[in-house]
Sequence to fold (279 residues):
Amino acid sequence: MTDETIVQWIRTKYESLVGTLDERGRRHWAAVEAWSLGRGGMAVVTKATGLSDRTIRTGMGELRAGVRWPEGRQRHAGGGRKAAKEKVPELLKALEGRVEPATRGDPQSSLKWTCKSTRELSKELTKRGYAVSRTTVAKLLKEAGYSLQANRKTLEGRQHPDRNAQFEPINRRVKAQRRAGQPALSVDTKKKENIGHYKNPGRTWRQKGQPVRVQTHDFPDKQKGKAVPYGVYDIGKNEAWVNVGISHDTAQFAVASIGNGGGGWGGGATSRRACSGCS
Fold:
């Protein structure tokens, strides 16, 4: 066989096995293959697998010495590359210095999150002389107690001392209405939307190169205005409807949405969507 044929043969075997071998298994397998090929075998295995000759020599040495490995270890104690924070002790401090201005979280909790991406943090550290990848940045952040999280609506403004007292009569009235078999409604305005050709999230099937063209900016059209969805939910029946108007969100519109059951209204109601079994 030619050298290229042997390289391809070794490569095929390696690609079939690499997914099932751990780090120690790979270097031991490569060492055995290099031995079996004789003179020049190490160069062939290196070319076929991409493993360094140093890795293969290490595997040969371990097999000759009959090294017994503790459970879960892939190298002898102290083997492998040093961690970035060990090679550059000030790296973690520099990273936290870049994260700190953008850090959020409960000061009493060890769990923190940052709104800067690992890619941006990597770029900033590299500019300051720390050659570190975004993968290493992510690892360091995790070790320091940071995690990738979304924000959550939990903060409220100042609470009026009479706020709870305001809602207790409403709660009693709702319960009384339901006991009497009368409707109890919950009403509120939903997110307003600009009317016109504006960008929306999601994708639709179109002919290649023919996307739906929309406005570059999301400024409201002064002529068309905004759609005002007004939700009305019947608590007892667990049914709801949404009245969509094009006028302002006014008390008149709210009353008309309830009184007409979401039907047409001269004040700007344009459509209705009934929803049975909503929660």
About this structure: The chain has a mean pLDDT of 75. Residues 84-143 form one domain. The two ends are 72 Å apart (CA to CA). Residues 173 and 254 are 20 Å apart (CA to CA).
